[in-house]
């Protein structure tokens, strides 16, 4: 299992970052490698952002040095979403869960072993977020049909999108982790516009379902001091609490949003009018 640490940043420092520094601190370029679990340990609310890719080999979610724990979920919870084309088989202690594409699984604190098993259909790809947890809640699978679904935007504004709230407090009980998925309709390219911030939690975005040769420009920074990062499919961006998180693509795409922090209210955000962005 490969892991890396990303440190927290101050907005005044980020104002002085060039392109390479922005990418080094906030962009996660390589989340998937064959037969591996890869992750980044962010000191923004101590969220872990990771990817799992396997075809032939069983992989085990193991602890690592920064956690100082006997097992990965000793003091943590985790949410996984199947971002591959085939089903994913996950063994949680002695119980097997199967996720179809774009289905999610929440696993609570205290689970001793999580295994990712090969399947006969094809390669497995899972994206995950993990946050510290103060107590234990039951493991729960969430399908797109189980999710709280919201339709937002319009074709006229190129931001018509469907939001699937998968691992949120209206669907599954968690300590602080929230995850969901936003699908942009064909012809729409803007996400999370109008933009917002939320001082009470950080966020990570994972972009996928992007056609070959297309790209996404992710916007970040304080509302009056914005910056941008160009990225490809199956890449993620860390968004500190003080930063907006919005983007525009050269085609439509899907992204997964994951949050950790003190407030589980999905609507807790400080909106910024488009005309006030600089």
From TrEMBL:
<feature type="binding site">
    <location>
        <position position="198"/>
    </location>
    <ligand>
        <name>Zn(2+)</name>
    </ligand>
</feature>
<keyword id="KW-0479">Metal-binding</keyword>
<dbReference type="InterPro" id="IPR011051">
    <property type="entry name" value="RmlC_Cupin_sf"/>
</dbReference>
<feature type="binding site">
    <location>
        <position position="245"/>
    </location>
    <ligand>
        <name>Zn(2+)</name>
    </ligand>
</feature>
<keyword id="KW-0413">Isomerase</keyword>
<dbReference type="GO" id="GO:0019698">
    <property type="term" value="P:D-galacturonate catabolic process"/>
</dbReference>
<keyword id="KW-0862">Zinc</keyword>
<dbReference type="Pfam" id="PF04962">
    <property type="entry name" value="KduI"/>
</dbReference>
<dbReference type="GO" id="GO:0045490">
    <property type="term" value="P:pectin catabolic process"/>
</dbReference>
<dbReference type="GO" id="GO:0008270">
    <property type="term" value="F:zinc ion binding"/>
</dbReference>
<dbReference type="InterPro" id="IPR014710">
    <property type="entry name" value="RmlC-like_jellyroll"/>
</dbReference>
<dbReference type="GO" id="GO:0008697">
    <property type="term" value="F:4-deoxy-L-threo-5-hexosulose-uronate ketol-isomerase activity"/>
</dbReference>
<protein>
    <recommendedName>
        <fullName>4-deoxy-L-threo-5-hexosulose-uronate ketol-isomerase</fullName>
        <ecNumber>5.3.1.17</ecNumber>
    </recommendedName>
</protein>
<feature type="binding site">
    <location>
        <position position="203"/>
    </location>
    <ligand>
        <name>Zn(2+)</name>
    </ligand>
</feature>
<dbReference type="InterPro" id="IPR021120">
    <property type="entry name" value="KduI/IolB_isomerase"/>
</dbReference>
<feature type="binding site">
    <location>
        <position position="196"/>
    </location>
    <ligand>
        <name>Zn(2+)</name>
    </ligand>
</feature>
<dbReference type="InterPro" id="IPR007045">
    <property type="entry name" value="KduI"/>
</dbReference>
<dbReference type="InterPro" id="IPR027449">
    <property type="entry name" value="KduI_N"/>
</dbReference>
<comment type="similarity">
    <text>Belongs to the KduI family.</text>
</comment>
<comment type="pathway">
    <text>Glycan metabolism; pectin degradation; 2-dehydro-3-deoxy-D-gluconate from pectin: step 4/5.</text>
</comment>
<dbReference type="GO" id="GO:0042840">
    <property type="term" value="P:D-glucuronate catabolic process"/>
</dbReference>
<comment type="function">
    <text>Catalyzes the isomerization of 5-dehydro-4-deoxy-D-glucuronate to 3-deoxy-D-glycero-2,5-hexodiulosonate.</text>
</comment>
